[in-house]
Amino acid sequence: MDLSAHPSVSMLLTKTLSNSGKLSLTYVQSHISVSIKTFSQCKHHLNTLRRFSCQSFQRKSGSLSSQRNSLGLCGALGAPAPCRKFSTNTVMAKSKFDYVRQFEIDDPCLPNCWIVIRIDGKGFHKFTEAHNYMKPNDERGLGLMSCAAQRVMNEFKEIVLAYGQSDEYSFVFHKNCQVFNRRASKIMTNVVSLFASSFTMYWPRYFNTQELQYPPAFDARVVLYPSDENLRDYLSWRQADCHINNLYNTCFWKLVQEKGLSPAQSEARLRGTLSSDKNELLFSEFNINYNNIPELYRKGSVLIRNKELNGPEKTMTSNNEDKTRYLKSEQKKALASCLVLHCDIIGKKFWEEYPYILSDK
Fold first, then answer.
1. Alpha-carbon distance 142 to 166, whole Å?
2. Which residues 6+ apart lie within 8 Å of 97 measured at CB?
3. Are 245 and 166 a contacting pair, CB within 8 Å?
4. Within a 10 A sphere around the Cβ of 255, how many other Cβ atoms?
5. In whole angstroms, what is the distance from residue 143 CA to residue 59 CA?
6. What's the pLDDT tens digit per position in 62-87?
7. Cα–Cα distances in Å, from 222 out to 107, 119, 185, 228?
8. What's the predicted TM-score (pTM) here?
9. How many whole angstroms separate alpha carbon 262 and alpha carbon 199?
10. Peptide bond into 136 cis (omega under 30)
11. Helix (H), strand (E), coil (C) string for the chain
């Protein structure tokens, strides 16, 4: 091969000879020949390595020919094909029915708003009659409601407070929470379904002599409150409702149970009366001071987090017996982490005593 005939080599020779007359043409040609030979060997080994890599990948992935055509990792044997950008993104298989997803509606709650989920017993007048609830208040039923509410609070750490009275409970999610991406329907259905299942599960604990006749049902709604004042007014409204209903029911059932009036007569007797009239009726005819009635009945139940019990997490052991014991202790701790209070939440004292409830997270 005449190296001097190559344009690049000829230019290199001319430049080299012009710079140094001491170098002979034969000497330069021999060194250039070695360099070109070494370069050719390296290029050959590189192509061999590339072909080997392509073949190894194709043997793992499937047919050699089909993979070469589909992935384009290598072209004809001995000549590398241009590289393609590899992506891990996959497109899920779709059917012709996928269009129905367009009818689904996202319902995110407004940001920076307190989310309140209020659940209410469906047809509980009939339910309490069928299960022999004591009138006007059944401590077992109220305790069961609070137990189910504690189970909900244990599941959803974003709940900062819950308030319950009669057959209803309100759960307050922090205004900055991101549970279920703040989807109203998702939050509401999870809360009400867990509450209903917990109510049924813990029924024997409170009504051990009364068998559950049929499954209870609860409805639910989502309400948003943009300010702390709005939220406090909502909770004050529910507690005021508790007081009004309990005062009426206490008078109503006293007239039925101790005076022998029929429900219709008792209702007629109380129609149009004020709170002061009902208080006077209880004191004058039954020697009852309404303020001495347990606060559970007059003010309902307030569930908040017990900050003192939120300690470091424990490590679970591998032993099955120890694991079961650990889970039971954690369940008891979770239930104990909720304080059940029967106090006034309309005034400022409660909110000053527990300022962390409304604090920013």
1. 7
2. none
3. yes
4. 21
5. 67
6. 544 444 444 444 444 445 555 555 44
7. 11, 9, 8, 17
8. 0.69
9. 32
10. yes
11. CCHHHCHHHHHHHHHHHHHCCCCCHHHHHHHHHHHHHHHHHHHHHHHHHHHHHHHHHHHHHCCHHHHHHHHCCCCCCCCCCCCCCCCCCCCCCCCCCHHHHHHCCCCECCCCCEEEEEEEECCHHHHHHHCCCCCCCCHHHHHHHHHHHHHHHHHCCCEEEEEEECCEEEEEECCCCCHHHHEHHHHHHHHHHHHHHHHHHCHHHHCCCCCCCCCCCEEEEEEEECCHHHHHHHHHHHHHHHHHHHHHHHHHHHHHHCCCCCHHHHHHHHCCCCHHHHHHHHHHHHCCCHHHCCHHHHHCEEEEECHHHCCCCCCCCCCHHHHHHHHHHHHHHHHHCEEEECCCCCCCHHHHHCHHHCCCC
Mean pLDDT in each 10-residue stretch from start to end of the chain (361 residues)?
Answer: 51 49 47 50 57 52 46 45 51 80 92 98 96 96 98 97 98 97 97 98 96 97 98 98 97 96 96 96 96 97 82 48 53 66 97 94 69
CA distances from 199 to 143, 145, 203, 206 (A): 10, 7, 6, 10
pLDDT in tens, 306-344: 886 554 444 444 566 665 554 455 455 545 589 999 999
Q: Which two tokens stand for residue 28?
A: 């330069």
